[in-house]
Amino acid sequence: MIHDAHIIIHAARVGNIEVLEELIRQKVDLNSRDDKGYTPLIIACYNNQYEAAQLLLNSGAHVNAQDNGGNTALMGAAFKGYKDIAELLISHGANLDLQHGNGGTALMFAAMFGRNEMLQLLLERGANKSILDTRGLSVEDLAAQQGNEIALSILQN
């Protein structure tokens, strides 16, 4: 089973649709995890493999799976700024307000890493901007810490 997990995660990372389709036909566990807790979906999204992510979601991958640190595919997309991947995840029911181990949300990642289009998208889709991380900081606090003026103005409107 570990062998299958490595194969499907590698196929997701490089966006190898043929291999993914074959593994899906063979009923390989789409929610298998590597030693960091990454699922094929988390890996596909983090590596901007839209088609692979879509195939995994349509085949039953868990949209809100969290790695060992509590990170989701949506958090990875927010960190990287992959808006189309975020829209795909949201359309498949991604929870916008899940928190990772330090209490951070996808919205916080977007604010901290200057992904302001992502920030706008998450807010439009209903992300909660009043959640605090484990230090008691809000998304506005984190944007201010980073000097992200654009994020601050988006958050305040």
UniProtKB/TrEMBL annotation:
InterPro entries: Ankyrin_rpt, Ankyrin_rpt-contain_sf. This is Ankyrin repeat domain-containing protein. The keyword Repeat applies. It comes from Sphingobacterium kitahiroshimense. It comes from the Bacteria. Keywords: ANK repeat, Repeat. SMART domains: ANK. Pfam families: Ank (PF00023), Ank_2 (PF12796). ANK repeats lie at residues 36-68, 69-101, 102-134.
